[in-house]
Structures are given as C-alpha cells and as structure tokens.
Amino acid sequence: DVQLVESGGGSVQPGGSLRLSCVVSGNTYTKYSMAWFRQAPGNEREGVASADTYGLTHYIDSVKGRFTISLDNAKNTLFLQMNSLLPEDTAMYYCAADSRWWLGLQTKSYTHWGQGTQVTVS
Length: 122
Description:
By secondary structure, the chain is mainly beta. It contains no helices and eleven strands. 0% of the residues lie in helices and 51% in strands.
C-alpha cells in the first residue's frame, strides 16, 4: 500500500509563505499523478495543484503565480510552496497520489490520501 504524511502547515499572516511537504512511503509507482487538495469548513474539497510522471503541472486559477508544486523523487517527497498567502487560502490541505498519471485535479479519483495539514491565514 501507499502511505502519505503531510507536514508544514501552520498559521501565517496575509502575504506570508508556507511550504507543505508530503512524504510518500510503501509501494511506489513508475507512473503517477500526485496532487494537493484543500477543504475549508462548509466547502467541498478542491484540487489546488497537481504533477505527473511527465512533469506536467496543473493549478487552479486562484493560486497561479503564488503556489508551486514540486516533487523530489530521491526523497519521495511532494512539496507545495505557497507564497503571498490570502485569508481565502485557509483550509485543511491534503496530499493525494494515484498510479493513473492523467488524473490532474480530479478530486474524487485519487486512491491514496494523507491525513491533512491545517493552513490558517489571518
């Protein structure tokens, strides 16, 4: 099986930065899709950023130019660098992974999920 453990969340003022990490352990994929999702209270979970085996990345419009997703294959770690944070970025952030490399930001399709890390901007 695959295990995902997120870290790096916290509280920050508007305009600040955080870097989220997601360590992947267990079975690894030769092809994959990995992504960050977030869910604020009362809202549905939404895809924020994704990356796949071929280096393609996708972002929702509200984070373009502020967030950057990256993957360190040697460390089996997915990152999300978040700059210029806004109060509306406040949410629980989840890491997800799947062997279907084409998933992108399809929220309900990912097989493996982490427990989440809270990000609060205020």
